[in-house]
Design brief:
The chain has helices at residues 2-53, 79-82, 190-193, and strands at 57-60, 72-73, 83-86, 99-101, 106-107, 110-111, 124-125, 131-132, 138-156, 171-176, 185-189, 210-227, 232-233, 235-239. The chain is of the alpha+beta class and 241 residues long. It has two domains: 1-53; 55-239, Galactose-binding domain-like (Jelly Rolls, Sandwich), CATH 2.60.120.260.
């Protein structure tokens, strides 16, 4: 009987110890989560402060980045649809970064081979290496992989000036430190900027880049651009101040 009581006491002590360890682990995990949340709050406060410090935003239409290499055509495509050419990616922090989209153009019931989200940051201008939305109110999103200072960004439809459909119309730029729907902060809305962006008219020609420049740098890891109309983008470039 004594041995049974001793075994029972040992078992009870084991459960008490084990539960204590679990509680300690949970408490530690909770403390770590609180610390992470505090860091996120500080980052958001800093972002809000920086956004409030932005005195102005300029929109310009510069020439494309310098072309490099030779113009090529994707196998199986006519040069009107499949042309592409590399450009100088110097200082472009979006180059080869992961890019996703809410949807993508479907050609004859299947995804097109020349219009994919990953082509938005592949370092090539032209319709032959671009993304086209399947519908209106679509978005693209780039992960810069780390918190980065953003001074300006630019994009265009077809900097080789061949394809002239799906030109960008109204758009919204949002940024975030984490890819969480609640954390995205709107930093630019073309509808509020000037009369040039009002209505449904296409406001850029295909060869121009559309550049948005911030007077103070924005700190973010994720950049999201939403397009109100059906849109085609051959390349998105992001630069530090």
């Amino acid at each position: 009987m004594f041995k049974k009581k001793q075994a029972l006491c040992s078992l009870i002590m084991f459960f008490i110890f084990a539960n204590g360890q679990i509680l300690c682990a949970k408490e530690k995990s909770l403390i770590e989560r609180i610390n992470d949340l505090e860091k996120e709050v500080l980052l958001l406060k800093e972002q809000i402060k920086r956004l409030n410090e932005i005195d102005y935003i300029t929109v310009t239409y510069p020439s494309p980045s310098k072309l490099t290499g030779n113009r090529e055509v994707v196998d199986g495509y006519h040069k009107i649809q499949g042309s592409f050419q590399t450009y100088n990616q110097e200082n472009n922090i979006a180059f080869m970064k992961k890019c996703i989209a809410s949807n993508t153009f479907i050609d004859n019931g299947k995804l097109s081979g020349i219009h994919k989200p990953r082509f938005i940051t592949d370092g090539k201008y032209g319709n032959g290496s671009s993304w086209i939305s399947k519908e209106e109110n679509s978005w693209i999103k780039v992960d810069l992989e780390e918190l980065s200072k953003i001074g300006k960004l630019q994009f265009g439809r077809d900097r080789l000036d061949i394809s002239r459909d799906y030109r960008p119309r109204q758009f919204i730029i949002e940024v975030a430190t984490k890819d969480n729907r609640l954390e995205y902060c709107k930093v630019f809305d073309s509808r509020d900027f000037c009369s040039k962006f009002s209505g449904e008219g296409q406001y850029t020609n295909t060869k121009e880049s559309l550049r948005v420049t911030f007077s103070k740098p924005i700190i973010a890891r994720f950049v999201k651009i939403s397009f109100l109309g059906a849109t085609g983008i051959d390349e998105l470039e992001i630069f530090q101040p």
